[in-house]
Amino acid sequence: MFPLNQWYVAGFSWELQDKPIARTLLNQHVVMFRTGSGEIAALENRCCHKSLPLSCGTIEERGVRCGYHGLLFAPGGACLEVPGQARIPVKARVKAFTVVEKDQILWIWMPREEGGTPTCEAPDYQVHSDPRYRFRGDVFHYDAPYQLIHDNLLDLSHLGYVHLKTIGGNAAVHMNAELKVEAAGDQVRVLRYMPDSSPPPTYLGAWPFAGRIDRWQEVEFNVSHLNIWTGGADAGTADMRDPQRGGFHMRGFHAITPETETTAHYMWTMAANSHPDRPDMTDLVYEQTALTFQEDKEVIEAQWKNMQRHSGAPQVDIHVDVGPNRARRVIERLVKENTQAAPQPVAVP
Ligand code: FES
Ligand SMILES: [Fe+2]
User: Fold this and answer.
1) 115 touches 93 (CB < 8 A)
2) DSSP states of 29-96 as a string?
3) Ligand 1 atom with the shortest distance to the CA of 69
4) Do 316 and 253 share a domain, yes or no?
5) Per the domain annotation, does 160 fall within a domain?
6) Which numbered atom of ligand 1 lies nearest the CA of 57?
7) Which of 82, 103, 180, 337 could form a disulfide with 125 if both were Cys (CB 3.0 to 4.6 A apart)?
């Protein structure tokens, strides 16, 4: 069901405080923590003694201590201490996952084979350290399969129907926007431009536009996350092809990590720039974004409930589905690759 040999987002740096966190990722029950000495870890959330979740334990300098009989586990999964017993049994260890902390994002490697090591670097997300932007984020839980969230993010035509209170705008403008879809390797890009349109409420709250605006929506789909750059500039003042263009920018990081086949984690941040004449609008943009994503969650969970009620009922594609369908093909191909046998060495006579 899920592409493997991939980096997925397990959470954000600020979530690792003084208590271990339990999170199910791709059907794997994981406990995450930062040791007292600052090392991050992701282990199977089960003590190898009597199976208490390690997330019920406590964090110490060297690792996590089980909350039942006190076994201490290092970030690599080895048992370091059995209270009251000098000898540590050879089998006393728990499975460890490879985790990397980058740009305040916790990336976890999900291998095809047990114990498999990363075949590439964890992705970069430089927006989090770009001095032009400030950001906040959150983690939402979805009672819906992860690909329904991909569909939603790759087709922003829904803004004019779902998000009228925040980032919406005129539904007809959204539905008729020029759409370009590009695909290369495992990546899909959906580009939409809406010149001379009216600014939606969130934009007006955050930026002093003179009147009508040119809007852009650039969606970049990667297997485990999407980077979405949306924004607007006073009509006729910015070149939409210029990566350094001015105006109001919203840079969204959207990680969708399957929890199970039918549930998902949506871990997001929203970064925005501030106009010199306006105070820092990070909180306003965050609150409006959270409201927007709550609206998406309601739609997607209702959609999923209905899909289950009408299991197997056919759906009809329309013009806005090109991007989502491309991404579905990428996922389909990668899921197939999970089960393809690794190339066998050729026997030399
Ligand atoms: S169950 Fe963890 S130490 Fe006993
Ligand atoms: Fe949405």
Assistant:
1) no
2) EEEEEE-TTS-EEEEESS-TTT---GGGSEE-SSSEE-TTT--EE-TTSBEEEBTTBSSPPTT-B--E
3) 3
4) yes
5) yes
6) 2
7) 103
Is the same domain home to 104 and 156? Answer: no
The 10s digit of each residue's pLDDT in 252-305 is 999 999 999 999 999 999 999 999 988 889 999 999 999 999 999 999 999 999
> How far is residue 266 from each of residues 25, 74, 257, 288, measured CA to CA in Å?
11, 29, 7, 17
Structure tokens given for 225: 């996350």
- Check if the beta carbon of residue 103 is closer than 8 Å to that of residue 124: yes
Ligand 1 centroid to residue 31 C-alpha, Å: 15
For the CA of 166, the nearest ligand: 2
83 and 216 share one domain? no
Q: Indicate whether 155 and 289 sit together in one domain.
A: yes
Tell me which residue has its CA closest to atom 1 in ligand 1. Answer: 50
| Dihedral sign (CA 148, 149, 155, 161) | positive
CA of 292 to the centre of ligand 2 (A): 6
Classified as helix, coil or strand, 345 is coil
Residue 118 lies in a domain: no
Question: Is residue 227, in this structure, part of any structural domain at all?
Answer: yes
Rounded CA gap, 109 and 119, in Å?
Answer: 9
Give me the number of domains the chain comprises.
Answer: 2
Domain match, 97 and 42 both: yes
Which residues' Cβ are closer than 6 Å to ligand 1? 47, 49-50, 52, 66, 68-71
Q: Which residue has the tokens 């493997």?
A: 4
Q: List the structure tokens of 16.
A: 């690792």
Q: How far is the CA of 72 from the centre of ligand 1 (A)?
A: 9
CA of 156 from ligand 2 middle (Å) equals: 7
